């Protein structure tokens, strides 16, 4: 018996276009999945980098805030005292702001070096707050001029009284003694002993 001839399927141009469209849809779906996966990896990488950089950003912000607060304090002192203060007293007041900032940083390092960044941020906030308050008082309070004229000598007097009382109390409790070599010139000029009764 002779075999039946195979039936030949005739494809129309429409069938070819449909096949091509289905293949393109598959490729587009694969490319879309790849693009979504790439975007996920990119977003997760950016989030991880931000989370890793947050501690360093906070430290940089603390340093910048500390410096900006110092500049604000110096500018405030100049704005308040420049109209009626000579140059050298004005520079001394501005230098006092710098000494206060450095002393605060040094005290933080001596007491707890781990909290230096928080200490810088706190010092910046306090100094910046005082600068804003001083500017507000200078512009809105009628007695601000008299207050700011009295403030520096009053603070200096309070500091001297505090240090005098503290050192005297430490000497009475035996926690501090007068440095005799520093007063050798006084002993030689008076011809006597400059030590206190408790040190003799």
Spell out the key features of this protein:
single chain, 200 residues, mainly alpha, 2 domains, 5 helices
Give a verbal description of the structure.
This protein is mainly α and 200 residues long. It has 2 domains: 19-140, no CATH class; 146-192, no CATH class. It is 78% helix and 0% strand. It contains 5 helices and no strands. It starts with 12 loop residues before the first helix and ends in a 10-residue tail after the last helix. The model has no long low-confidence stretch (mean pLDDT 77).
Kindly name the structural category.
mainly alpha
- What is the alpha-carbon Rg in Å? 39 Å
Domain tally: 2
Poorly predicted runs are none
| Major sheet characteristics | none
H and E order: HHHHH
Tell the overall outline: elongated
Amino- and carboxy-terminal Cα gap: 142 Å
Fraction in helix: over 70%
For the secondary structure, the number of strands is 0
Give me the number of helical elements: 5
